[in-house]
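Researcher: I'd like a structural prediction for the single chain below. Treat it as a standalone chain; there are no partners to consider.
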Amino acid sequence: MKTFETLSEAIADLKARGYVHDFNLQPECIECTPLNLKLKPVEFHVDEVYRFEGMTNPDDSSILMAIQTTTGIKGLLVDAYGVYSDSLSPEMIKRLTIDSRTSY
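Model: Treating it as a single chain, here is the predicted structure.
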């Protein structure tokens, strides 16, 4: 897996590799508004995960996920690290966890 110094560097690299859509996290799904998609946990896989800490504050962290749908659509999800787990369904938490098919 590649390493990146900044979130913007990682985003640029992943977009060049086809992860061009923006995904948003919802309690029961991820969505891509421009494509009018709402993806249930069984409809996507996290391919790669990168974590970035803030320059001056370690609590100011973010996570970048490269996600691919079961139909081959690739996109990115950026979120505050660790914050999402409180509001997500157990199925979403499980799907967003790194597994044997995820690069890490």
